[in-house]
Amino acid sequence: MELLQQRFSQLKENLSQQVIGQPQLIERLLIALLADGHLLVEGAPGLAKTRAIRELGELLEGSFHRIQFTPDLLPADLTGTDVYRAQEGSFAFVPGPLFHNLILADEINRAPAKVQSALLEAMAERQISIGQTTYPLADPFLVMATQNPIEQEGTYPLPEAQLDRFLLHVRVDYPAVESERLILELARREAAGQAAISTSQSEFAPLSSNELHQARQQVLDLYLADNLQEYLLQLVLATRNPEPYGADLQHAIQYGASPRASIALDRCARARAWLVGRDHVLPEDIQQLAFDVLRHRLILSYEAEASGMHADRLISELIARVPVP
To answer: 315 near 295, Cβ under 8 Å?
Structure first.
């Protein structure tokens, strides 16, 4: 276990040298990788969302592909399609960009629902069906979709049922001024064509699929105490029935989180504990990840939204009120 944890620690360090000022995004990317899930990242332009997953692709054995979502995109632009070969008199399948290990679905909410559905079906089933033939996708397969919270004109918001298929919904913010100074230095070095790679990074061998599968198994085997599992379940159940935790929350939620939230919180809490070198889960692992696991799975009532309530504030209230074992 220690050898693989050391490898991921080096992977995280190398990513931090190339993606400055976004430690939470880096951690959530690695958690999604270990938990075998996908993440939706929301943030203003220029916050290194694309750079983060591209740099991760450089440190893994596998392929990376970026897809720019636009209103005229078609499902076949993602999945691929059968092409007629006139010389052979037959059809041949030409794979689309989804047949890569790491996918950046940039501005996913700019494409219509049928394109979003094609992507999310591939995410859930890890396969694509063209006609009567089903093609398995690459393993590992991770999708990082982005949304721009500023511009809403000409967008197609993802329905709640589709959002539920994302393991995490991560929000990124502007870096601190100290980090921005380092970003300027890195940008100048890259513009001058200078190598911005440390000695440790140049010596880092890309993480293999076999190492990743072993790490995922260790994450699944990580110890989670029964009372912490019960605490995790009570947090998720409180989104469906918040009444026992205060009359003010009784009518705040129209629909709570599905069982996918329980599964996601369990796997992500284990992954976070494993990443920091522990062999067991602590309450803080569950609490830290509750926001990213739950915020896109809650539908607040009209009364709650009208009063200024938002998902993160509600999750904070539940964490404060659900007893910690």
So the answer is: yes
Q: Are residues 191 and 226 in the same domain?
A: no
pLDDT, residue 200, reads 43
User: Is the same domain home to 234 and 274?
Assistant: yes
* Residue 60 near residue 206 (C-beta atoms within 8 A): yes
Question: Looking at the domain assignment, is residue 209 inside a domain?
Answer: no
In a domain, 73, yes or no: yes
Average pLDDT, integer, range 112-133: 87
| Total-model pTM | 0.92
Query: Contact 94/80 with Cβ under 8 angstroms?
Result: yes
Residue 200 lies in a domain: no
pLDDT at 179 over 80: yes
204 occurs within a structural domain: no
Indicate the pairing of strand 127-130 with strand 133-136: antiparallel
Q: Indicate the residue among 195, 214, 230 that finishes a domain.
A: 195
DSSP-assigned states of every residue in 52-86: HHHHHHHTBSS-EEEEE--TT--THHHHEEEEEET
The span from the CA of 159 to the CA of 299, in Å, is: 11
Which residue stretches of 152-301 are H helix?
Answer: 160-163, 177-191, 199-202, 209-221, 226-240, 259-275, 283-294
